[in-house]
Amino acid sequence: xxxxxxxxxxxxxxxxxxxxxxxxxxxxxxxxxxxxxxxxxxxxxxxxxxxxxxxxxxxxxx
Length: 62
Prior knowledge:
Elements: E1 2-12, H1 15-27, E2 31-40, E3 46-58
């Protein structure tokens, strides 16, 4: 049996869609990794990013 960590970054420009996507991943067993990053695009726009991790356990093949 081996353990692997999967890492994924969710990015979105819309706060509601961003929250919904994060909640979906949390419901599937993913964990938050760090805090939300706010990336400025220009004076009026930004992109949100959240890193997520999930442990995967591989069963040995028989």
